[in-house]
């Protein structure tokens, strides 16, 4: 069967199908923003969607990303392949296409993704966190050495703890050897927390994350190892 990658910058029927048929089954509810929130991000131009469709135009895989202009950080917010098509190379191809397109359009920029703790238990619908990390590392991702959490959709009490923040692309201007520019990441996190939680909290978890981002010389990154 022939697959094609298409792009959407406004919330049409394909976006709705991607949300309902690919994102809802692939992500736990605490990690997935509401359909209308993603639609609004497409409308205001901060987000775009790449979807792989089959010959009938039905979505089989999707990459949804959001751009933070102030920090020059592009977040791969959601990447999902329908369960029946997983393991066939579609996800890897879409990841390379999406990261390549964002880097070409936005550079100098960082492209990042957040993934679950690789030590978390596997679950049939949402996938195996260890294999997911291997998938990203095979695409060249490096793990930032920060105590990352996904901001809580609707408030800090809904945070997803123990996540990893990955770098999928770093422009030479933002890369300092095996480190990346902490200022860009700090601005990105401030923006993200304000948008999702309504502000930057004064709690210990946020302070620890920001202290890691503010290290002199940048934020170290590299392969993941248990206990990182
Ligand atoms: C992770 C995912 C995007 C990979 O896409 P894919 O098309 O299946 O991957 P490819 O065929 O290009 O590459 C195969 C690799 O993907 C990973 N992978 C495949 N199925 C997976 C699953 N169910 N769970 C986790 N990782 C998986 C493995 O690393 C696999 O390599 P392996 O077979 O040697 O273990 C896809 O499995 C998926 O949608 N999972 C659920 C949602 C998700 O985890 N999204 C990413 C977090 S933002």
TrEMBL record:
<dbReference type="Pfam" id="PF13508">
    <property type="entry name" value="Acetyltransf_7"/>
</dbReference>
<dbReference type="GO" id="GO:0016747">
    <property type="term" value="F:acyltransferase activity, transferring groups other than amino-acyl groups"/>
</dbReference>
<dbReference type="InterPro" id="IPR016181">
    <property type="entry name" value="Acyl_CoA_acyltransferase"/>
</dbReference>
<dbReference type="InterPro" id="IPR000182">
    <property type="entry name" value="GNAT_dom"/>
</dbReference>
<keyword id="KW-0808">Transferase</keyword>
<protein>
    <submittedName>
        <fullName>GNAT family N-acetyltransferase</fullName>
    </submittedName>
</protein>
<feature type="domain" description="N-acetyltransferase">
    <location>
        <begin position="4"/>
        <end position="171"/>
    </location>
</feature>
């Amino acid at each position: 069967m022939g697959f094609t990658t298409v792009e959407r910058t406004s919330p049409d029927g394909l976006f709705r199908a991607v949300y309902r048929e690919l994102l809802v089954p692939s992500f736990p509810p605490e990690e997935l923003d509401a359909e209308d929130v993603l639609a609004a991000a497409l409308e205001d131009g901060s987000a775009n969607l790449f979807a792989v469709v089959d010959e009938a135009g039905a979505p089989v895989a999707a990459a949804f990303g959001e751009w933070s202009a102030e920090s020059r950080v592009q977040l791969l917010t959601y990447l999902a392949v329908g369960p029946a098509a997983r393991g066939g190379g579609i996800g890897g191809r879409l990841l390379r296409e999406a990261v390549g397109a964002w880097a070409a359009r936005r550079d100098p920029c960082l492209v990042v993704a957040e993934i679950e703790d690789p030590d978390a238990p596997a679950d049939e619908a949402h996938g195996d966190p260890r294999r997911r990390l291997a998938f990203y590392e095979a695409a060249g991702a490096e793990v930032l050495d920060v105590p990352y959490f996904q901001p809580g959709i609707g408030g800090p009490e809904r945070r997803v703890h123990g996540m990893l923040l990955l770098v999928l692309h770093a422009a030479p201007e933002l890369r300092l050897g095996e480190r990346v520019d902490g200022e860009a990441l700090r601005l990105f996190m401030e923006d993200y927390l304000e948008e999702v939680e309504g502000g930057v909290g004064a709690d210990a978890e946020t302070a620890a994350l920001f202290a890691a981002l503010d290290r002199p010389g940048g934020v170290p990154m590299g392969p993941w190892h248990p206990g990182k």
